[in-house]
Amino acid sequence: MVFTLFDNEGGKVGTFSRNTNGTYDIGPMQINSSNLPEIKKHFPTVTWRVLAYDACASFWVGTWWLYRKIVDRKGNVFEGIADYNSKTPKVRAKYIFNFMVKYNRRIQQRNGMGELYQWTQQPPRYNGHIAKNVPEQNPTPVVK
Protein backbone atom coordinates (compact mmCIF):
# COMPACT_ATOMS: atom_id res chain seq x y z
CA MET A 1 0.00 0.00 0.00
CA VAL A 2 2.83 2.42 0.85
CA PHE A 3 4.55 1.70 -2.47
CA THR A 4 1.32 2.45 -4.31
CA LEU A 5 1.06 5.71 -2.36
CA PHE A 6 4.64 6.49 -3.39
CA ASP A 7 3.76 5.75 -7.05
CA ASN A 8 0.67 7.92 -6.81
CA GLU A 9 2.58 10.83 -5.25
CA GLY A 10 5.23 10.70 -7.96
CA GLY A 11 8.02 12.24 -5.90
CA LYS A 12 11.74 11.63 -6.19
CA VAL A 13 14.75 12.38 -4.05
CA GLY A 14 15.37 16.12 -4.18
CA THR A 15 11.96 17.08 -5.59
CA PHE A 16 9.90 20.04 -4.44
CA SER A 17 6.45 20.45 -5.97
CA ARG A 18 4.78 23.83 -5.48
CA ASN A 19 1.07 23.70 -4.63
CA THR A 20 -1.53 26.32 -5.55
CA ASN A 21 -1.80 27.37 -1.88
CA GLY A 22 1.91 28.25 -1.71
CA THR A 23 3.05 25.14 0.19
CA TYR A 24 5.48 22.57 -1.18
CA ASP A 25 5.37 18.79 -1.42
CA ILE A 26 8.83 17.53 -0.49
CA GLY A 27 10.85 14.46 -1.48
CA PRO A 28 9.88 10.95 -2.55
CA MET A 29 6.72 10.78 -0.39
CA GLN A 30 5.77 14.38 -1.27
CA ILE A 31 5.21 15.43 2.35
CA ASN A 32 3.56 18.84 2.50
CA SER A 33 5.63 21.64 4.00
CA SER A 34 2.63 22.76 6.10
CA ASN A 35 3.03 19.53 8.10
CA LEU A 36 6.64 20.23 9.11
CA PRO A 37 5.81 21.72 12.55
CA GLU A 38 3.78 18.62 13.49
CA ILE A 39 6.47 16.30 12.12
CA LYS A 40 9.14 18.19 14.09
CA LYS A 41 7.28 17.41 17.35
CA HIS A 42 7.60 13.68 16.74
CA PHE A 43 10.85 13.60 14.76
CA PRO A 44 13.01 16.47 16.11
CA THR A 45 15.92 15.80 13.74
CA VAL A 46 13.80 15.71 10.56
CA THR A 47 13.93 18.90 8.51
CA TRP A 48 12.76 19.70 4.99
CA ARG A 49 16.28 18.87 3.78
CA VAL A 50 16.12 15.41 5.35
CA LEU A 51 12.69 14.75 3.79
CA ALA A 52 13.92 15.95 0.40
CA TYR A 53 17.24 14.14 0.21
CA ASP A 54 16.95 11.05 2.45
CA ALA A 55 14.60 8.52 0.85
CA CYS A 56 14.51 6.32 3.96
CA ALA A 57 13.48 9.23 6.17
CA SER A 58 10.89 10.32 3.62
CA PHE A 59 9.34 6.83 3.57
CA TRP A 60 9.50 6.54 7.35
CA VAL A 61 7.78 9.88 7.96
CA GLY A 62 5.37 9.40 5.05
CA THR A 63 4.28 6.01 6.39
CA TRP A 64 3.83 7.48 9.86
CA TRP A 65 1.82 10.39 8.41
CA LEU A 66 -0.40 7.96 6.47
CA TYR A 67 -0.96 5.95 9.67
CA ARG A 68 -2.07 9.14 11.46
CA LYS A 69 -4.48 9.97 8.65
CA ILE A 70 -6.01 6.48 8.79
CA VAL A 71 -6.38 6.74 12.59
CA ASP A 72 -7.98 10.19 12.19
CA ARG A 73 -10.53 8.54 9.86
CA LYS A 74 -11.27 5.81 12.45
CA GLY A 75 -9.52 3.12 10.43
CA ASN A 76 -10.96 3.96 7.01
CA VAL A 77 -7.87 3.27 4.91
CA PHE A 78 -9.05 4.89 1.68
CA GLU A 79 -10.24 8.05 3.44
CA GLY A 80 -6.84 8.20 5.16
CA ILE A 81 -5.07 7.81 1.82
CA ALA A 82 -7.19 10.59 0.34
CA ASP A 83 -6.42 12.82 3.36
CA TYR A 84 -2.71 12.18 2.83
CA ASN A 85 -3.04 14.03 -0.46
CA SER A 86 -5.73 16.69 0.00
CA LYS A 87 -8.78 17.89 1.92
CA THR A 88 -10.41 19.20 -1.29
CA PRO A 89 -13.30 16.84 -2.23
CA LYS A 90 -12.74 16.82 -6.02
CA VAL A 91 -8.99 16.36 -5.64
CA ARG A 92 -9.50 13.59 -3.05
CA ALA A 93 -11.96 11.68 -5.25
CA LYS A 94 -9.68 11.66 -8.28
CA TYR A 95 -6.64 10.82 -6.15
CA ILE A 96 -8.27 7.83 -4.46
CA PHE A 97 -9.61 6.59 -7.81
CA ASN A 98 -6.10 6.68 -9.31
CA PHE A 99 -4.73 5.04 -6.17
CA MET A 100 -7.25 2.19 -6.37
CA VAL A 101 -6.45 1.58 -10.05
CA LYS A 102 -2.70 1.38 -9.30
CA TYR A 103 -3.21 -0.71 -6.16
CA ASN A 104 -5.43 -3.19 -8.01
CA ARG A 105 -2.81 -3.55 -10.77
CA ARG A 106 -0.08 -4.08 -8.18
CA ILE A 107 -2.09 -6.84 -6.49
CA GLN A 108 -2.86 -8.50 -9.84
CA GLN A 109 0.83 -8.45 -10.81
CA ARG A 110 1.87 -9.78 -7.42
CA ASN A 111 -0.53 -12.69 -7.84
CA GLY A 112 0.80 -13.44 -11.33
CA MET A 113 -2.35 -12.16 -12.98
CA GLY A 114 -0.93 -8.96 -14.50
CA GLU A 115 -1.05 -10.15 -18.10
CA LEU A 116 -4.51 -11.70 -17.74
CA TYR A 117 -5.77 -8.52 -16.09
CA GLN A 118 -4.36 -6.43 -18.93
CA TRP A 119 -6.23 -8.46 -21.55
CA THR A 120 -9.56 -8.84 -19.77
CA GLN A 121 -10.26 -5.47 -18.17
CA GLN A 122 -11.49 -2.23 -19.66
CA PRO A 123 -9.06 0.64 -19.13
CA PRO A 124 -10.28 2.50 -16.03
CA ARG A 125 -11.56 6.02 -16.61
CA TYR A 126 -12.41 8.59 -14.00
CA ASN A 127 -15.70 10.30 -14.83
CA GLY A 128 -15.72 13.01 -12.19
CA HIS A 129 -17.26 11.20 -9.23
CA ILE A 130 -15.94 8.13 -7.45
CA ALA A 131 -19.41 6.65 -6.84
CA LYS A 132 -20.33 6.83 -10.53
CA ASN A 133 -17.41 4.63 -11.57
CA VAL A 134 -19.33 1.39 -11.90
CA PRO A 135 -18.94 -1.17 -14.68
CA GLU A 136 -21.16 -0.66 -17.70
CA GLN A 137 -24.05 -3.10 -18.08
CA ASN A 138 -22.93 -4.18 -21.56
CA PRO A 139 -19.25 -3.26 -21.86
CA THR A 140 -17.61 -3.39 -25.24
CA PRO A 141 -14.95 -6.10 -25.48
CA VAL A 142 -11.31 -5.12 -25.28
CA VAL A 143 -9.54 -5.77 -28.58
CA LYS A 144 -5.81 -5.29 -28.86
If you had to describe this structure to a student in words, what would you say it looks like?
This is Lytic transglycosylase. InterPro entries: Lysozyme-like_dom_sf. It is a single chain. This protein is mostly helical and 144 residues long. The chain has one domain (2-129). The protein is 53% helix and 6% strand. The protein has seven helices and three strands. The protein has a three-stranded antiparallel beta sheet. Strand 1 (16-18) and strand 2 form a beta hairpin. Helix 4 (55-72) packs across helix 5 and helix 5 packs across helix 6 (89-110). It is globular. It starts with a helix and ends in a 24-residue tail after the last helix. The model has no long low-confidence stretch (mean pLDDT 83).
Short description:
The protein has one domain. A hairpin with a 4-residue loop joins β2 and β3.
